[in-house]
Design a protein that fits this description.
The chain has 95 residues and is mainly α. The chain has four helices and two strands, in the order βαβααα. The protein has a two-stranded parallel ribbon. β1, α1 (9-22) and β2 (30-32) form a beta-alpha-beta unit. α1 packs parallel to α2.
């Protein structure tokens, strides 16, 4: 459906790999919140060729990595949607 999904940690990354194997192309829509301290997580991320937003060594569970990543994603969206273009900001071309 083209809806991005925020993946948080080892267990949800294992599910992401299963989803990608069942329906190739799924991984295109996945955003990985963080690189967990769990040893198997690095292997899963490598298989998926995934680049997590954060690498904080979290091992807390409870969606803590996603909770930390959401403000970062919100800021990225705000920058993308609200930043002025060069023309709007009155920046001239180099001569």
């Amino acid at each position: 459906m083209g809806i991005p999904v925020l993946i948080d940690g080892f267990i949800s990354t294992a599910a992401a790999l299963a989803a990608e194997r069942i329906c190739p192309g799924t991984a295109t829509w996945l955003i990985y919140a963080h690189a967990s301290a769990e040893p198997g997580h690095a292997r899963l991320l490598a298989v998926l060729d995934a680049k997590p937003l954060l690498s904080l060594g979290l091992r807390l569970g409870e969606g803590s990595g996603a909770a930390v990543a959401v403000p970062l994603l919100r800021m990225a969206c705000a920058l993308h949607n609200e930043m002025a273009t060069f023309a709007e900001a009155g920046v001239s071309e180099r001569e």
